[in-house]
Amino acid sequence: MAGPLPLGDPAPSDGRLPADLPIDPSVPFSAYLHIPFCRVRCGYCDFNTYTSSELRGARQEDYASTLLAEIDLARNVLDEAGALRPMDTVFFGGGTPTLLPAGDLALMLGAAVSAFGLAEGAEVTVEANPDTVTPEVARTLADAGVTRLSIGMQSAVPHVLAALDRTHDPDNVRTAVAAAKEAGLAVSIDLIYGAPGESLADWEASLDAALELDSDHVSAYALIIEDGTKLARQIRRGEVPTPDDDLQADMYELADRRLAAAGFEWYEVSNWARSDAQRSRHNLAYWRGSDWWGFGPGAHSHVAGLRWWNVKHPAAYAQRLSASDSPAAGTERPDEGARMLERVLLQSRLVEGIAVADLPAGNRANVAGLIADGLVDARAAVQGRVQLTLRGRLLADAVVRELTD
Predict the structure, then answer these.
(1) Residue 369, CB half-sphere, CA atoms under 13 Å: how many?
(2) Which residue in 39, 270, 369, 373 is a FRET match for 333, CA 20 to 30 A apart?
(3) Could you tell me if 108 and 51 are in contact, meaning their C-beta atoms sit under 8 angstroms apart?
(4) Are strands 306-310 and 291-295 parallel, antiparallel or unpaired?
(5) Residue 145 exposed, middle or buried by CB count within 10 Å (0-12, 13-18, 19+)
(6) What is the pLDDT of residues 89-145, one digit of tens each?
(7) This prediction's pTM
């Protein structure tokens, strides 16, 4: 399970937004629907997810109707605050959303559309385990209004999947992609690199397999060891090696070369798409600081600079809503300094970068040193923007420190 929730102020039991919140109805609005169920807990994962033995008082079969209660609450709260807008993007994440019947996902999506409306051309994504996607599931999701499936391939190499505790059959990735395409859905492939025992040749084999699927979008994330996970404990006991930073850098460079050669363009440090239209608009909403409501246990929300997060356990979540209370556990309103830090952290990772004028005034002079170190593109900087080079993408955290510390 995920670590503790952030510290913050108590959230109002009715979920009401502060009267002085500077609502801007022109800001895009998104919805995130968290499905907190997994068959098996992956050793590297610290997301707020639960296997059947961990539910203790909550039932998967009741989850859709429970989440509908939060949708009703959100509609009332946003309507009262003058913040009710159609959804530009919807994202079902987890966990494993497709562990629920496709009809349950369709029910939740339909309720959200009825409550908020859906903008023309909206993007609606469902994350999926390859073993759970059949032609029937894909058709049901497409008929409900889903436009995009994000398939958790992670690797094509059996021993790498085993190191990650992934239990899906690698052959099912191909059948899942075929089912999605047959239903008219766009497809994104998710990969992880740097697992214990994974070689550069293993990673190349996974890239080859992903490219053969002819998807619209690829996400490739370096494995990060999170405190409290099974993998962190294994490393601490010396049972598996710590990921090698130099090898992960080689893997990233290989991914960037291979994806570029196949017609993909990077638009965020860990994401590539075949065209602007096939970028993940939902993730861009996060990176660009739009408004969103996160539904489900442990989900986080953001509206006009206000943040809040729900109680973690599905049973506590259900209990709050059954009592007609907000499931929010805490809230915060970051000051301008904290918001600026976050803008730099997120926007500098995008291909368009961040305007030099949007940096803290005391850090703008540091851009020259980043150019000299080959981390920031000189031509873009002359035009007033900080854009990462390939080397800068590899050292993005160091760039952010220079721009904010």
Answers:
(1) 10
(2) 270
(3) no
(4) unpaired
(5) middle
(6) 999 999 999 999 999 999 999 999 999 999 999 999 999 999 999 999 999 999 999
(7) 0.96
